[in-house]
Amino acid sequence: MTKPSAKRVSIVSVKLVRESSILYERRSIRSPQDAYDLLKSFLEDKDREHFIVVSLDTKNQPVSINICHIGSLNASIVSLREVMKSAILSSAASIMVAHNHPSGETTESREDVEVTKRLAEAGKLMGIELLDHIIIGDGKYNSLKEKGVI
């Protein structure tokens, strides 16, 4: 009998890399309007859907913003694993997520509601609360927390 060849296993470290930073004068997010004010510059006027994760500390102060997914004109596949990855690496107590609708309309789709519910459930399991999911359009937003989805 031949002995199977050994498998090489990589030794790795996992790091969060800061690409840039912004100043946030309000310091903490207290409302959907605060979240919109922070994120609108990232999401307005994009020609494709962008899905963003904001990691927050215990005082609801943003510690990181991650553009998690970039989709097509009217869709973005959202992976729970990718959303939670930046939250875990940022030692987040909670997260807010947001995405844009390039059409400018902020009405939530069935998929938006489903993703929000799955993220909230995953967050509960991991001890990272989902505070809100904001949909950003032309100069306006829609809070799925305010709509009772979360």
Verbal overview:
The protein has 150 residues and is of the alpha+beta class. 26% of the residues lie in helices and 23% in strands. The protein is built from three helices and five strands. A five-stranded mixed beta sheet has the order 2-1-3-4-5, sandwiched between helices. α3 links the parallel β3 (94-100) and β4 (129-136). The mean pLDDT is 92.
Beta-strand percentage range: 15-25%
Q: What is the spatial order of strands in the main beta sheet? A: 2-1-3-4-5
Distance between the termini: 59 Å
The main β sheet shows up as: 5 strands, mixed
Number of helical segments with 4 or more residues: 3
Helix coverage percent: 25-40%
- Element pattern in H and E: HEEHEHEE
Shape: globular
Topology overview:
Layout: H1 32-43, E1 50-56, E2 62-70, H2 80-89, E3 94-100, H3 110-126, E4 129-136, E5 141-143
Sum up the structure in keywords.
150 residues; alpha+beta; 26% helix; globular
In short, what is this structure?
This protein has 150 residues and is α+β, with helices and mostly antiparallel strands. It has 3 helices and 5 strands.
